[in-house]
């Protein structure tokens, strides 16, 4: 407890000192930063994205992730084919390596794309995108 609360700064007693809570500083309704729809404050996250926008962005990031993963897998396959030049004896192991590279590349690409979407605060398409007009 601060010293001025104990000694009653301004003539008030200790019981009169009221510390604001987190919930007192937030509005009841906020605008989603991506779709622009008015939502309850409990339905948005800390970047003010609603659940629907997060799911849509996660889905779009998944498509970007698979594209990145396929590109990475193609690069690994080119490296294996041109530099390593595998023999026919262990070709199954190299195919499994390329498949694993595609899968891991897709996972990393999805998370990177989702993080970039969130950091850039990109607006979603569709009707009603943007802040509401007054």
Brief synopsis:
The protein is mostly helical and 134 residues long.
Class computed from helices, strands and strand pairing: mainly alpha
Q: Average pLDDT value?
A: 82
Helicity level: 40-55%
Largest sheet: 2 strands, antiparallel
Note the overall shape. rod-shaped
Radius of gyration: 26 Å
Protein topology:
Blueprint: H1 3-6, E1 29-31, E2 38-40, H2 51-84, H3 91-120
Antiparallel strand pairs: 1-2
Helix pairs in contact: 2-3
What do these coordinates show?
- The protein has 134 residues and is mainly α.
- The chain has a domain at 52-120.
- Helix content is 51%, strand content 4%.
- The protein is built from three helices and two strands; from the N terminus they run αββαα.
- The protein has helices spanning 3-6, 51-84, 91-120, and strands at residues 29-31, 38-40.
- Strands 1-2 form a two-stranded antiparallel sheet.
- A hairpin with a 6-residue loop joins β1 and β2.
- α2 runs antiparallel to α3 (91-120).
- The radius of gyration is 26 Å and the shape is rod-shaped.
């Amino acid at each position: 407890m601060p010293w001025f609360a104990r000694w009653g700064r301004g003539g008030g007693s200790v019981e009169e000192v009221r510390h604001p809570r987190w919930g007192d500083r937030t509005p009841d309704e906020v605008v989603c930063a991506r779709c622009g729809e008015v939502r309850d404050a409990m339905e948005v996250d800390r970047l003010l994205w609603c659940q629907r926008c997060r799911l849509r962005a996660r889905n779009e990031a998944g498509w970007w992730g698979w594209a990145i993963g396929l590109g990475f897998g193609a690069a690994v396959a080119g490296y294996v084919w041109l530099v390593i030049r595998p023999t026919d004896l262990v070709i199954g192991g190299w195919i499994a390596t390329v498949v694993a590279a595609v899968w891991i590349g897709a996972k990393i690409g999805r998370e990177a794309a989702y993080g970039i979407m969130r950091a850039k605060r990109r607006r979603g398409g569709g009707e009603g995108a943007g802040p509401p007009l007054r």
